[in-house]
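Why do we care about 3D structure at all? Because function follows from shape, and shape follows, mostly, from sequence. That is the central idea of this module. The next example makes it concrete: a single protein chain, its amino acid sequence, and then its structure expressed as tokens.
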Amino acid sequence: MLSQVVDMSRLRPPAVAGSFYPLDAAELRRTVAGFVEGCPRSGAVRRPKALIVPHAGYAYSGPVAGCAYRRLRDSGARIRHVVLLGPTHRVPLRGLAIPSLDGFDTPLGPVPIDGAGRQRLRGLGLAGIADAPHATEHSLEVQLPFLQAVLDDFDLLPVAAGLAPTDLVARALDAVWGGDDTLIVVSSDLSHYHTSDEARKLDATTTQSILARRSDVSDEQACGARGINGLMQVARHRGLEVELIDQRNSGDTAGDRARVVGYGSYALFEA
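And the structure:
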């Protein structure tokens, strides 16, 4: 798949393959294809500049994520650079962190790191270099097989967000915004551990904030709120349009309706 040479000794190995998604490459391809193909094709296909997608185990959030990634395939997006930003769940972090490694490995093969993007964020003082926040983090990893399934050759700028103010996230995204060949992906689930009915109401409020491009989503509304709020600040500044693609919760997909996690996927379009 990759035209770039990646140092195999400096790859981040998969941390949640076999738990969040299949470890076997053939099974993983079938699973991802099922989620992407299971979504109805939209009438007017536009190329998204940015996506917000969930990051739970594929049995739970895979259908919602798949509908977002179908937009890339249906629009024939020629993406060469992916800026992927997600929250840290296991390692405390202030600000933003990029790994020092040369690539991220998945059962579908390695994805090289965008070294120029990393150097730009570091040189501007917008992100530090740290491997620990990425080592076991799933919020970025689970997006990679979807990206590998719908894109051709691309490199990756993985950004882990801890306690990061909205303005910092927005400035970092703006600094690596790029052109038509660059895609921004913000990884986030929505509400956690409410009943299914409660989650629908809470997540509907969050969706209204996102559609209005407001930067007021709280950590209780979305675990990736820092990334969402930063992206919304850029969206306002750059005049992007936001579209809801899909919104469900784990009670709708594969879980108990008494205690659910909410999922939403959204696409952002440049004028």
